[in-house]
């Protein structure tokens, strides 16, 4: 399974680690992913998703159904 947020599609970012002498080496900045159980009222059950920390914060305001619809995610599979 790839390290990608199921609702927002966030994934790792390529960047540089810059030393004091300004030597640059490549590094991978990973997404802050968490396994989260979210209550899905329409399905009347819990859904277990792998979400980024920012998606969890957005989820509280938008709701799971709206975010899943934007992402094109079928919650019956999870």
Q: Could you characterize what this model shows?
A:
The protein is 23% helix and 36% strand. Strands 1-2 form a two-stranded antiparallel sheet. The chain has one domain (13-72): Roll (Ribosomal Protein L24e, Chain: T). The chain is an alpha+beta fold and 78 residues long.
Characteristics:
single chain, 78 residues, alpha+beta, Ribosomal Protein L24e, Chain: T, two-stranded antiparallel ribbon, 2 helices
Can you lay out the helices and strands and say which pair or pack?
Elements: E1 13-18, E2 24-29, E3 33-40, E4 45-52, H1 53-62, H2 64-71
Antiparallel strand pairs: 1-2, 3-4
CATH architectural name: Roll
Distance between the termini: 14 Å
Topology as H/E string?
A: EEEEHH
Number of strands: 4
Overall mean pLDDT: 95
Number of helices: 2
What low-confidence regions span 5 or more consecutive residues with pLDDT below 50? none
Strand content: 35-45%
For the largest beta-sheet, the strand count, sense and barrel status come to: 2 strands, antiparallel
CATH class: Mainly Beta
Q: Domains counted in the coordinates: how many?
A: 1
CATH names the topology as: Ribosomal Protein L24e, Chain: T
Morphology: elongated
The CATH homologous superfamily is called Ribosomal protein L28/L24
Helix share bin: 10-25%
Category from helices, strands and their pairing: alpha+beta
C-alpha Rg (nearest Å): 16 Å
Sheet with the most strands: spatial strand order: 1-2
């Amino acid at each position: 399974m790839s390290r990608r947020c199921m609702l927002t599609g966030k994934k790792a970012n390529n960047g540089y680690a810059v030393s004091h002498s300004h030597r640059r080496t490549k590094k991978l900045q990973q997404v802050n992913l968490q396994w989260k159980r979210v209550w899905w009222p329409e399905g009347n059950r819990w859904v277990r998703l792998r979400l980024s920390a920012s998606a969890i914060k957005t989820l509280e305001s938008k709701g799971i159904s709206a975010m899943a619809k934007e992402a094109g995610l079928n919650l019956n599979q999870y």
